Amino acid sequence: MVIRDARFLTSNTKVELCPAPTMPEYAFIGRSNVGKSSLINKLVGRTGLAKTSASPGKTQLINHFLINENWYLVDLPGYGYARVSKTSRTEWSRMINYYLRHRENLACVCVLIDSRHPPQAVDLEFMEKLGEEGVPFVMVFTKIDKQSAAQTRELIASYLQKMGESWDELPRHFLTSAESGAGRDELLNFIGEVNQE
Ligand code: GTP
Ligand code: MG
């Protein structure tokens, strides 16, 4: 898919205030600092469109971007940041769970996972929950530029094996880097395919 146009629309905490659910929507979610905002920028080829930061917890709201005037990309706040208070964590859960359940145009959730780490409970549980709720999702492994291809292959293989313990059919997965642009075309083509459905 060619990106002709990408622009920021709104930031908010309430699904009711999000842009009209008239176009398919793809939400990026995952642990704080996993690279959600960076990958969004790389996908659309616009540095600085989604705000990024070296310290976790940068994205706090539901951020909508309109792409090619016919689909939405959504940058969500990260989960699993240890230094966040219990109250903030509860607020996060409430906002995100409500969003995931009620956003009627949600075409697919992209669950971002750092390709350098072994499977983490917080990610596995989050995906379990998506499965239980019937929310379509794919796994997007990030930051593959930070290690060798062999290391990535090994970690992803063990990750998928772990997933295989609880899933009959493994969700689709992508290997990406916001640095090198690896996986960009594959992810955009996937979105293009889903948009056609
Ligand atoms: P929160 O909004 O805080 O949840 O974080 P986020 O998931 O949006 O992460 P963000 O895109 O802000 O990136 C976090 C840090 O990781 C930044 O310092 C980025 O430059 C870096 N980063 C993100 N993606 C990549 C990548 O693919 N490769 C490398 N080398 N660094 C990356
Ligand atoms: Mg972010």
Assigned CATH superfamily: P-loop containing nucleotide triphosphate hydrolases
Spatial gap, N to C terminus: 15 Å
CATH T-level fold name: Rossmann fold
* Residue fraction in strands: 15-25%
TL;DR of this structure?
By secondary structure, this protein is of the alpha/beta class. The chain is 35% helix and 21% strand.
Question: Any overview of this molecule?
Answer:
The chain has one domain: P-loop containing nucleotide triphosphate hydrolases (Rossmann fold). The chain has helices at residues 36-44, 86-102, 121-133, 149-164, 184-196; strands spanning 6-12, 25-30, 62-67, 71-75, 106-114, 137-142, 173-175. The chain has a seven-stranded mixed sheet with strand order 1-3-4-2-5-6-7, with helices on both faces. Helix 4 (149-164) links the parallel strand 6 (137-142) and strand 7 (173-175). By secondary structure, it is α/β, with parallel strands linked by helices. The protein starts with 5 loop residues before the first strand and ends with a helix. The chain contains five helices and seven strands; from the N terminus they run E-E-H-E-E-H-E-H-E-H-E-H. Guanosine-5'-triphosphate binds at residues 32-38, 52-54, 56-59, 77-78, 142-143, 145-146, 177-179.
Give the SSE map:
Blueprint: E1 6-12, E2 25-30, H1 36-44, E3 62-67, E4 71-75, H2 86-102, E5 106-114, H3 121-133, E6 137-142, H4 149-164, E7 173-175, H5 184-196
Parallel strand pairs: 2-4, 2-5, 5-6, 6-7
Antiparallel strand pairs: 1-3, 3-4
Magnesium ion binds at residues 36-37, 58-59, 75.
Protein name: Probable GTP-binding protein EngB
InterPro entries: G_ENGB_dom, GTP-bd, GTP-bd_ribosome_bio_YsxC, P-loop_NTPase, Small_GTP-bd
Function: Necessary for normal cell division and for the maintenance of normal septation.
